[in-house]
Amino acid sequence: MSSMNFNPFQNWFEKQPNPVPSINFVSLADSFFPKSHSPNFASIGLPKFSKKSQKPETGTDEPGPYKQIGEQFLWECENIPDDRNTPEVDKIFNEDPIFEKKVNPSAEEIEAEEKWWERFCASPVVQFMARAEEIADDMNKMELEENDTPYLKSGEPFLMCRDSTGV
User: InterPro entries given for it (predicted)?
Assistant: First the structure.
């Protein structure tokens, strides 16, 4: 059977051969990273102790910026500063007229202060807040008692040491 070419342009748009051969990346990668061939099953030989791994030794032992931030955060969590007894706080207390200390209060001033404290403690808002604080303390104690024994997801208590019988 013969074939006829009805293309009026014939070979004008024919693909020309590439003068540069394409690069075979697989063989190129194999040349840079040769595959280690495992020895035969029954072969006798020493393991590759003579070959040392060539890890690039970095001269800087400093941690990266994110590790530094994390270490600083953990250090600040463990060492929370106590600013209650600093000179700045003492200065504020000494300068503020609300916190003034009366050196020698008179009997009338002591009586007036006691009456103020009685009215303050008799206030329903203060009583409510004191009772709410007591309830919160009781709930916290109950929660601590409930969580004193850790449990597994299956519901059984988590025991640190188990023998072969599972007890």
Answer: TIC56 (IPR037471)
